[in-house]
Amino acid sequence: MKRATSQSSGPSQTTLGITDLMTSLVVVFILLFAAQFSKVSSAAQSELQGNKEDVRTALRNHIQRLGLSLDADPRDPLALVIVVPEDRLTFEFGKSALSPAAEQFLADALPFYVEALCGPLRNKIDSLAIEGHTDDYGSDAFNLKLSQERSLAVMVKGLEVIQTAKPYSYQCFQEITSATGRGRQDLMYESTSVINREKSRRVIFKIRLRSAEQRHQTEQSSKGL
Asked: Model-level pTM?
C-alpha cells in the first residue's frame, strides 16, 4: 500500500508574492517620504537664508558706518552675530560700569537695531542675546561673574536708551533680549597657543532667527488654530 506524499511545509508561492509586494510598497513609501522630507528641508533652508539676508540688508549700512560686521554664528545655523570690540564698549579694568564712550555707542547703535528687529523683521526674529566675554586674567569664577555683570549693564543701558528714543519698541526689546556672561570660555587666539586678550574682551549681540517650526506655530496661533 502506497503512503500519501506529505505537503511541503515551506511558504507557498502566493505568500512569497504578497511578502515581496509588501516589501516593495514599504521601500516605495520610504523613498517618497525621504524625497518629501528633503524637499521640505530644502525649502526651510532656503527660507532661512532669505531671512538672514533680510536682516543683513536692514542692518548693513548702519553696521558698516560703525565699523562693525554681521556674521554667521558657526555654532548656531539660526544665528547672526555682531561682535563689538572692547574699544567700542569700554569698561574699566576688572569692573562692569560702562564708560561714557560705551554709553554713547549704545545710544547711537541700539535704537536703529531695535527698530529694525522689532519692526519689519519682528516675525523673523526669535531673540536677541547680549553676551559678555573676558580675557584669561583671573579665575574662571571671577571672569564669569564679571562678564555677566557687563552684559547686564549693557542690557540695562539698552532699556534706558530704547525707552527714551524708541518707546514703542520698548516692550518688544524687553521680551526678546537676554543678558548672559561667557567669562573666559570663548577666548580669541592669534595662533594655536597665543591668546589675543584685546579681542577676547568683547560684547556680542546674537540675533537668533525663528526656525521653520516656530514660524509655523506663530502662523497657526495668529489664525486661532
From this structure: 0.75
